[in-house]
Amino acid sequence: MLNWLFNKKNSDNVSLSRIGVDIHSHIIPGIDDGVETIEQSVAMARKFQELGYTRIVTTPHVMWDCYKNTPEIINAGLEDVRQAVKAAGLNVQIDAAAEYFIDEHFTTLLENGEEFMTLPGKRLLVELPYSTPLLNVSETLFLILQKGYQPVLAHPERYTYFYSDPSIYKKFCDQGCELQVNILSLGSYYNENVHKMAEYLLKNGLITFLGTDAHRMQHLEMIRKFQGNKWLEKYPFQNEKLINI
């Protein structure tokens, strides 16, 4: 089974050309829990291109207890990746934003008007703790909007404490937040509960963007399993509108 999955010809890959832009990945080496070497960065960029992407906006973690990344650190790593991808003869465009963990450091940056690494359209990709709910999520999203940014909540399907009342996500959307689902949540890669929550959000039309959240080649290889996935074929993800922003 694994040989069948990982050794299929490129022509058998699922095509994500309709999506066009990936807005969530970790392919700058050595600055978070993503790739470790520039060679891995290039290999993943090549795989993105094979899958049909034309643009990658990679999003290193900014999580002050673990990954003290700044725009200077991220941009330096981005330039290294761009040069390596160009030298490899690839045509995929590489840009960078960041995935900001909502913690005290993030709130301080926001209140002080500091510079953020954003997705196209001044979109600010944020994530929450996986197991412990924050008390002020709505207030923080409102503050992001007040500061002139469009909040995008990463992988809402993975926050288990909202499973008992998923209607909170409609409240976030009504407040002005966009939601980004992970492509691997469209199957059972994480677990069945994550898959069910992803389906709930999609069925209710609450998802705006699709992201790979790719940290390593294995994640991109697993996407081959999604050939014929109904959500990839029919759901109106809005990634493509970010291609030229």
Topology:
Layout (H helix, E strand, L loop, with lengths): L1 H5 L14 E2 L15 H14 L3 E4 L2 E2 L8 H17 L5 E4 L2 E3 L2 H9 L10 E5 L9 H10 L3 E5 L13 H8 L2 E5 L9 H12 L5 E3 L5 H6 L7 H5 L11
Parallel strand pairs: 1-2, 2-4, 3-5, 5-6, 6-7, 7-8, 8-9
Helix pairs in contact: 2-3
Can you tell me about this structure?
It is an enzyme of class 3 (hydrolase). Keywords: Hydrolase. This is protein-tyrosine-phosphatase. InterPro entries: Caps_polysacc_synth_CpsB/CapC, Pol/histidinol_Pase-like. It is a single chain. This protein has 245 residues and is an alpha/beta fold. It has one domain: Metal-dependent hydrolases (TIM Barrel, Alpha-Beta Barrel). It is 35% helix and 13% strand. It has helices at 2-6, 38-51, 71-87, 104-112, 137-146, 168-175, 192-203, 217-222, 230-234; strands at residues 21-22, 55-58, 61-62, 93-96, 99-101, 123-127, 150-154, 178-182, 209-211. The chain has a 6-stranded parallel beta sheet. The longest helix is centred in the first third of the chain and has 17 residues, at 71-87. It is globular, with a radius of gyration of 17 Å. The protein starts with a helix and ends in an 11-residue tail after the last helix.
